[in-house]
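SECTION: protein entry
WANTED: fold as tokens:
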Amino acid sequence: MATSLKNLSDYDINAVPSGKGKKIGIVVAEWNKHITFELLKGCESTLLEYDVHPDNIILSIVPGTFELPFAARKIALQHDLSGVICIGCVIKGETKHDEYINHSVAQALQNLNIQYDIPFIFGVLTPNTEQQALDRAGGKYGNKGVEAAVTLLKMMDL
């Protein structure tokens, strides 16, 4: 469903399980950090709202979106995590670079989901413009970080 039809921060609060006792990893790309760190804020505040203890949130910051899967796997293994959220933002440019990055990261995270018994969440914005990214990082379409946190909580409850 298009984000313009459903706000990223809207969800049924009664359908979200508690994160109490869960240990969560969040990997955030520095590239476009004015966007990704807003996504991180939404993600962290949602996890805290659903009883994830602050000491049980392990944060890793990487240079760019392409590095998310490697860091996600690494912190999952090092910290015995219940799940990992990967946050990035790749804005379309003049070349197809964005397509290569987005496809590679999506495929790598899918492989991690299949290989390991914990969820790895794709919290990556793939907008055409910076304004579209800002609209999804706490702007008029909500915050993708909130959506990623809710998704993780639901997937950990399977």
About this structure: Residues 69 and 108 are 6 Å apart (CA to CA).
